[in-house]
Design a protein that fits this description.
The chain has 505 residues and is mainly alpha-helical. The chain has 25 helices and two strands. It has two domains: 231 residues, Up-down Bundle (Growth Hormone, Chain: A); 196 residues, MFS general substrate transporter like domains (Growth Hormone, Chain: A), CATH 1.20.1250. A two-stranded parallel sheet has the order 1-2. Helix 6 runs antiparallel to helix 10.
Length: 505
């Protein structure tokens, strides 16, 4: 069937160009806007959201596995914390690596490898015979989880520009559902079956990604970037049929067309070239390959360096604050270790599961708030307002920490940080061109993982050392600095087309 469609598309393009050079043209963005968000995008959302929920479950898993393994294998506190740290270390490597792979070889290959690694290593973790093997397998899981931004960018590239904010917020809800599902699963599985069964069950969503992989389409933006305009047109026709709409009249124009126009080569000639010829005869692409310019240098180019550096600070601040608030919820509520004995630590484990389960629902209002404001106020104003509001919620805790007040203020701060985390994952892919989009988001996500690694080493150590005020002030500084960086972002992306190359940024 695909071969029949291919044979139909190519002659149609050639006939239109032979009839006259003035035939109409359309871009990927124009085609997506014309077709709208429909059934095709819903299926893409379901697949990408499954991957996002899988990552959330593996991250939430860390709250339960560490204490259980420590008790089973008589580990030291340092050894217990290392189980979490190796996952973040793996994500640090994976987020950078898979971004480069997906930008070079395609989005589908990127998330296929990550899903395979996550599901296999996650399932084998349940059979780890000793501490060292568990660390190795969980580190490999982290490497696989680093591919999460690839799925986010893949889904983003199918959304019409006017709807990107709203639907990326909907995509983010899968993370919250993943955390709630994992907390529910741990609550039911851990007391009766133990931590190994929880590890095995938590790897199942990643396996589903592999089962349905054969039905996933490649990003038409990526295909156009590679000069495979005909393949991109076939996917757009499938979207139109599934959505029961029509493509704009004319010929699909790839992002490379602009490069040819700058060199005074007629756009029509681009479509008459085969994908292989397009790659070979593009001087700019050839020069880039010869020079071997790394994606990191492109991110730090004159056009992108300000946005990139500010984005790194914001991702660090978001991760540091988000995971810190999760930890503070358990450290600052209830009986204080600094004023009472440690006997309360021997309470039944179910209490911890219930508390984590309930606190996870704080993210739902944050997601709803993001959906309301992201396309009305814009990305920058939404993020900055939520950062400053989170700092306002935390400020009283530097002086007063009563149970009811502490719980309410931490709940409010977590709503705000969830909102900023959601919006920054919308903004980040929008500021980078297609050629380095997943690399840019992947590296920024890696910086965020550093924040996740540093957070427990700093904040939790201060709280357990009875320096709660110092911990709150530290969070205030990081959150306020992140909000200021958002204000300094050079441009707003609300309603704008996704750039195809660096020049368009």
């Amino acid at each position: 069937m695909e071969m029949e469609e291919r044979s139909f598309v190519i002659p149609q393009e050639q006939q239109q160009m032979e009839d006259g050079g003035g035939s109409s043209r359309y871009t990927i963005d124009e085609a997506l806007v014309s077709m709208g968000f429909g059934n095709f995008q819903i299926l893409v959302l379901a697949y990408a959201g499954m991957g996002w929920a899988s990552e959330a479950m593996e991250m939430m898993l860390l709250s339960f596995i560490g204490p259980a393994v420590q008790s089973a294998w008589s580990l030291s506190p340092h050894q217990e914390s290392l189980i979490t740290s190796v996952v973040f270390a793996g994500m640090l490597v994976g987020a950078y690596s898979w971004g480069i792979v997906s930008d070079k070889y395609g989005r589908r290959k990127g998330f296929f490898i990550t899903a395979t690694l996550t599901s296999v290593a996650g399932f084998l973790s349940a059979f780890a015979p000793n501490y060292i093997s568990l660390l190795i397998l969980r580190c490999l899981v982290g490497v696989g989880l680093g591919g999460g931004p690839v799925l986010a960018s893949w889904f983003l590239e199918f959304i019409p520009a006017p709807d990107r904010g709203t639907w990326m917020v909907v995509f983010s809800t899968f993370w919250t559902f993943g955390t709630i599902l994992e907390a529910s699963l741990a609550w039911k599985v851990m007391p009766s079956l133990g931590w190994r069964w929880l590890l095995a069950f938590s790897s199942f969503p990643s396996l589903l990604l592999l089962i349905f992989y054969q039905y996933t389409p490649e990003s038409p933006r990526y295909l156009c970037l590679q000069g495979r305009t005909s393949d991109a047109a076939i996917i757009l026709e499938k979207i139109a049929r599934r959505n029961r709409t029509n493509l704009p009249p004319g010929v699909l124009v790839s992002g490379h067309s602009y490069d040819f126009e700058e060199q005074n080569i007629p756009v029509e000639d681009v479509h008459l070239l085969s994908p292989r010829q397009t790659k070979v005869e593009t001087p700019r692409a050839t020069k880039s390959n010869m020079v071997g310019l790394s994606p990191l240098l492109k991110l730090l180019s004159r056009e992108l360096i300000v946005s990139t550096l500010l984005l790194w600070v914001v991702f660090f601040g978001n991760a540091f604050s988000y995971y810190g608030l999760v930890l503070l919820t358990t450290e600052l509520t209830g009986k204080s270790r600094c004023t009472t004995t440690d006997m309360h630590l021997n309470e039944h484990d179910d209490v911890n599961y219930r508390d984590v389960f309930i606190s996870s629902f704080a993210e739902l209002p944050g997601l709803a708030l993001s959906a309301v404001i992201v396309d009305k106020l814009g990305r920058k104003l939404s993020m900055s307002a939520m950062f400053f509001l989170a700092a306002t919620f935390l400020f009283p805790l530097a002086f007063y920490r009563f149970d009811g007040l502490t719980t309410s203020l931490l709940f409010g701060a977590r709503i705000c940080i969830t909102s900023t985390f959601t919006v920054v994952y919308i903004y980040a892919p929008e500021i980078y061109p297609t050629s380095i989009r997943t690399t840019g988001v992947g590296i920024a996500s890696s910086i965020g993982r550093i924040g996740g690694m540093v957070c427990p080493l700093v904040a939790v150590a201060l709280v357990k050392g009875c320096h709660q005020t110092a911990a709150i002030i530290l969070f205030e500084i990081v959150i306020l600095l992140s909000g200021i960086c958002v204000v300094l972002f050079p441009f707003e992306t609300k309603g704008q087309h996704l750039p195809e190359n660096v020049a368009e940024t």
